[in-house]
From TrEMBL:
<keyword id="KW-0472">Membrane</keyword>
<feature type="active site" description="Proton donor/acceptor">
    <location>
        <position position="181"/>
    </location>
</feature>
<feature type="domain" description="Peptidase S49">
    <location>
        <begin position="114"/>
        <end position="266"/>
    </location>
</feature>
<feature type="domain" description="Peptidase S49">
    <location>
        <begin position="360"/>
        <end position="510"/>
    </location>
</feature>
<keyword id="KW-0378">Hydrolase</keyword>
<dbReference type="InterPro" id="IPR029045">
    <property type="entry name" value="ClpP/crotonase-like_dom_sf"/>
</dbReference>
<dbReference type="GO" id="GO:0004252">
    <property type="term" value="F:serine-type endopeptidase activity"/>
</dbReference>
<dbReference type="GO" id="GO:0016020">
    <property type="term" value="C:membrane"/>
</dbReference>
<feature type="active site" description="Nucleophile">
    <location>
        <position position="376"/>
    </location>
</feature>
<comment type="similarity">
    <text>Belongs to the peptidase S49 family.</text>
</comment>
<dbReference type="InterPro" id="IPR002142">
    <property type="entry name" value="Peptidase_S49"/>
</dbReference>
<dbReference type="GO" id="GO:0004176">
    <property type="term" value="F:ATP-dependent peptidase activity"/>
</dbReference>
<dbReference type="InterPro" id="IPR001907">
    <property type="entry name" value="ClpP"/>
</dbReference>
<keyword id="KW-0645">Protease</keyword>
<dbReference type="InterPro" id="IPR004634">
    <property type="entry name" value="Pept_S49_pIV"/>
</dbReference>
<dbReference type="InterPro" id="IPR047272">
    <property type="entry name" value="S49_SppA_C"/>
</dbReference>
<protein>
    <submittedName>
        <fullName>Protease-4</fullName>
    </submittedName>
</protein>
């Protein structure tokens, strides 16, 4: 038995080494051969992060990593615009896993690409609303005859847990400041408050209007007509979609390819020279659009904000402050752009990062570019920047704080558990989740919440050059679109990362400059080898989701997240899954 087990382990190790070696050999070919008369095929069917952040000199970089970097996609499109071998782009069957502002950034890059005179065509067996928003930039949009186009307006859903708490005996004690700070509302009520409903409705309306404005310009259909199409489900079949004007033709994919061949002058018997975007990214990475000894440092802060080191999907003061310090001390770096894509999180970590930005501003200008969301703690770390850019579809604001503390005293009583506490001083036993929260402890926590909120307001007022009263009038936890945030003075300009970089260069009077991206992350393979527990945890999550279903798993994640929150939270007021 020992010999058999030993052989199995040896074979397992050899197999892993073989896979790694094969992957490294596959990565050895850094570029692909782009033939004349090629078509760049854009299929975005893996999750998109603002920044993947792999060290290109690391042979394990990108190994087992399934995510794509928005920065890489945008760069590849910009390179393709000037590549004489690329004649056009085919947007093919995207089921885009990106935020609305990320999608808008790709759309803007495609709009710029089209100005070169090269074609953009789009084909889909079906289109989600976000897929169509991207595809609508194309010269012509095609749909499968038995496909459909989802075009009905935006919506979202918020789960409420008050009854669940009462039935289970497990509840969340919540303390908050902010009329609109409704991250904790699901634990306090069974239905949505009018304040929360108002802000969600106005936010969705603003995002939808931004989408419709772009679609209207590309398809030459008025916003009013687009709303009428959505209200009447005027694209529910391929026939109706074509009649609505949102689709140019209803064809099968082989007919779509024949059309491209005809327009390119390619023989119908020949294959099209497709270059997948995933391959072209490797080729494009060798071409620098921005070059020069002087640098603009772009620091990516993406994910929830947690106290600690942080990583590729979590903002921690450790990794962000280290990146700010490196950029600040690098003599070649003349200005810094902080790309923020975060719903917020730890107020303490947010303030520590804010302080590091204040120190950095003393020697170099700092410009913020907001991604899909820069709310609450995400806005906290952005507020002090010299200049702030947001996309029209960016979700921002949410200036407010709250605390959540789990309590199982009712459950303990129901199952016959009694906890007794012993302490040396009056307040040495401050809280037990087995006992109801007492007034003294609640008062102390509320004092901390109020102090943090006032500090947050002060950071906003100081950074935006307004009074505390003015800051409070747009705060109270209220969320805004990028368009509304500019109107209210929470951001300076509407635009993406490129516009923020250009503004930073203008501040330091740079015409020629290179880009230095920070921080650098460990590859998934390195993290797997360092901590196999991480892979195990992911496997467990997949198993649980498969067993209980996606809807039940979403509820479980919401409860788990609430239980994990430690300290005062400056967090997005609710989880938004906009459809």
């Amino acid at each position: 038995m020992a010999a058999i087990i030993g052989c199995l382990i040896a074979f397992g190790i050899m197999f892993v080494m073989f896979v790694v070696l094969a992957a490294l050999i596959g990565q050895g070919e850094d570029t692909v051969v782009v033939k004349d008369n090629s078509v760049l095929e854009i299929q975005l069917q893996t999750p998109i992060n603002d920044y993947v952040g792999m060290d290109e000199s690391n042979p394990f970089a990108g190994l087992f990593n399934v995510n794509q970097g928005l920065d890489e996609i945008l760069h590849a499109i910009n390179v393709a615009k000037e590549d004489n071998k690329i004649k056009g782009i085919s947007l093919n069957n995207n089921v885009i896993m990106a935020g609305l502002s990320q999608t808008q950034a790709i759309r803007d890059a495609l709009t710029d690409f089209a100005e070169s005179g090269k074609f953009i065509y789009a084909y889909g067996d079906f289109y989600t609303q976000k897929d169509y928003y991207l595809a609508s930039v194309a010269n012509e949009v095609y749909l499968n005859p038995v496909g459909a186009l989802d075009f009905k307006g935006l919506s979202t859903e918020v789960l409420f847990f008050k009854d669940l708490q009462e039935k289970s005996g497990i509840k969340m004690e919540v303390i908050r400041h902010g009329k609109y700070k409704s991250a904790v509302e699901p634990f306090l009520a069974n239905e949505m408050s009018e304040a929360n409903r108002t802000q969600i409705k106005e936010l969705l309306d603003a995002l939808w209007h931004s989408m419709l404005t772009n679609i209207s310009e590309s398809r030459d259909i008025s916003v009013e007509d687009l709303n009428h199409i959505a209200d009447t489900l005027g694209t529910r079949t391929s026939k109706y979609a074509a009649l609505s004007g949102l689709i140019d033709e209803v064809v099968y994919f082989d007919e779509y390819e024949s059309m491209i061949k005809e327009k390119m002058g390619v023989d119908t018997a020949d294959d099209l020279n497709y270059v997948p975007i995933s391959d072209y990214i490797r080729t494009a990475s060798k071409i620098k659009i921005n070059s020069g000894t002087d640098k603009i440092a772009v620091i990516f802060a993406q994910g929830e904000i947690w106290y600690g080191e942080g990583g590729s999907d979590v903002i921690g003061q450790g990794i962000i402050n280290d990146a700010l310090k490196k950029a600040r001390e690098d003599k070649n770096v003349k200005a810094i752009v902080l790309r923020v894509n975060s719903p917020g999180g730890s107020a303490l970590a947010s303030d520590i990062i804010w302080r590091e930005i204040e120190i950095t501003k003393q020697s170099k200008p700092v410009v913020v570019s907001m991604g899909d969301v820069a709310a609450s703690g995400g806005y906290y770390i952005a507020a002090g920047a010299d200049k702030i850019f947001a996309e029209p579809t960016t979700i921002t604001g949410s200036i407010g704080v709250f605390g959540t503390i789990p309590n199982i005293s009712e459950l303990a009583e129901n199952i016959g558990v009694n906890a007794e506490q012993v302490g040396t001083n009056k307040n040495s036993v401050d809280y037990s989740l087995f006992e109801p929260m007492n007034d003294s402890f609640r008062s102390n926590v509320l004092e901390g919440i109020e102090a943090t909120y006032k500090t947050f307001l002060d950071r906003v007022a100081q950074g935006r050059g307004i009074t505390l009263a003015q800051a409070d009038s747009v705060a109270q936890g209220r969320v805004w679109s990028g368009v509304d945030a500019k109107r209210l003075g929470l951001v300076d300009e509407l635009g993406g990362l490129d516009e923020a970089i250009a503004a930073a260069a203008e501040m330091v009077e740079l015409d020629n400059y290179g880009i230095r991206k920070l921080p650098k992350y460990k590859s998934d393979f390195e993290k797997l080898m360092e901590d196999l527990g991480g892979a195990t945890a992911k496997s467990k999550e997949s198993i649980i989701q498969e067993e209980i279903g996606a809807e039940a798993y979403a509820i479980l994640k919401e409860i788990k997240l609430a239980l994990q929150n430690k300290g005062v939270q400056a967090r997005m007021p609710f989880t938004l899954n906009i459809k």
